[in-house]
Amino acid sequence: MNHFSKGNLSESPATQSRHEANLPVAIPASNTPIKARWECLRSPLFLVIVAAPNLISLAYWGVIASPVYQSETIVVVTNPNKDSDSLTSLLAGNAGASTSGAYILKNRLLSWDEYKSIDEKFHIEKTYKNGDFVARAGGLSSFWRTDDISMWKYYQSKIGINIDEQTGITKIIVSGWNSNDTFKISEALIHDGITHLNLLNTEEDNDFISSASTETERLRKELALDESAIAQWRTVHGYLSPDSDYTSLSSKHLQLDNKYIDLNSQYQSVLHNTPGNPSTLTLKTQMNVIQNAELDARTASLAIFPVAIEYETLNLKRETDSKLLVSAETALQEARIKSTQNHYYLKTVSRPSEPRAPSGPQRLKWMLVVLITSIILRALLA
Questions:
Q1: Which of 283, 303, 361, 375 has the highest Cβ tally under 10 A?
Q2: 168 near 99, Cβ under 8 Å?
Q3: Residue 288 falls within a domain, yes or no?
Q4: Are 331 and 372 part of one and the same domain?
Q5: Phi/psi of residue 74, nearest 5 degrees
Q6: How far apart are CA 227 and CA 220, in angstroms?
Q7: Nearest to 360 by CA among 14, 68, 92, 60
Q8: What is the residue range of 244's domain?
């Protein structure tokens, strides 16, 4: 055993170096990937595209952004002429509905006139000045502008109107920095919407009814003038109606003529049988009276003809105006029915809500949106 040890110890230096060369040697691991990763995180592109936007997003959405309160109102604008389905079926979504009234309401509520009306009542700039420095009226989002056009655009951004094309149901969402303001503005918008639709209905009535109503009034006045002209003709000429008066006088003439014939026959009989009878004088007198009355009736009946043409002209005009008045009144009634069918009616499904808790901002959502967007943009630009 000692010999073996001595033999090993007696190996030459060259042999020992060959053994050492065959032994495994530990190679230190390279730290290049770690350095590259840190270099990537410190690159200007990463700092500008990812780091800075996310830090700003975290600061704004996490700390600075003001709570947002929303008042929601649900309404339906109907038109009897266009909406044949019942309100129940429309709300159930079983049938299509006309959305023309809903878009009229939307355009009105977002219009300049409505902005001026709301601004006079609530002073948009003062009401919305309590938000954070970005979202408040006259803040960073509007580049610190407070002119009327900028405030109008700001007002429009706080009024959300969503229309369901299937049912026509319209949601009006008013956003603000406190519950009370949003609730009052929502109520004012609904009131102004109803007022505007009523104004449109009135104008619709005027368009349909005004011409028919004017014509009806004109014909009524014309008919009154016709009656007055006929009454004046009767006063001047002393006749009620040429037709009836001539018939009456002709009948009277025939009666007198028959009576004259009877008296004359009696007179001739008495005169023939008892000449000198005193009754003949009485009969003769009666015959003269009847003959004079008959002559007067004949003269009066003949006198009707010259003035009958004037009366017939007046009477024809009266009858024509009377028929036209009936037609105009019928047209007026139809116009009223048609105008009613074209009215728009605003029906409230849900009154304006008055929330006690804020519904926004959705902080996590927007921070995630900024993060994902910045990462995608960084990957595209890398």
A1: 283
A2: yes
A3: yes
A4: no
A5: -120, 125
A6: 11
A7: 68
A8: 209-341
Torsion, Cα 190 192 195 199, to 10 degrees, reads: -130
Mean pLDDT, consecutive 10-residue segments, the chain of 382 residues? 42 49 49 55 78 88 88 90 56 62 93 94 91 87 88 94 90 93 94 92 81 88 91 81 66 74 77 73 79 72 71 87 90 81 86 87 88 88 76
**Distance of alpha carbon 102 from the chain centroid:** 7
Are both 221 and 128 inside the same structural domain?
A: no
Q: How far apart are the first and last CA of the chain?
A: 70
DSSP assignment of 206-236: HHHHHHHHHHHHHHHHHHHHHHHHHHHHHHH
Domain assignment present for 11: no
The sheet with strand 169-176 has its strands ordered as 159-163, 169-176, 69-78, 345-350
Q: How far apart are CA 15 and CA 330, in angstroms?
A: 133
Q: Is the pTM value of this prediction over 0.90?
A: no
Same domain, residue pair 265 and 275: yes
The encoded tokens of residue 199 equal: 């104004």
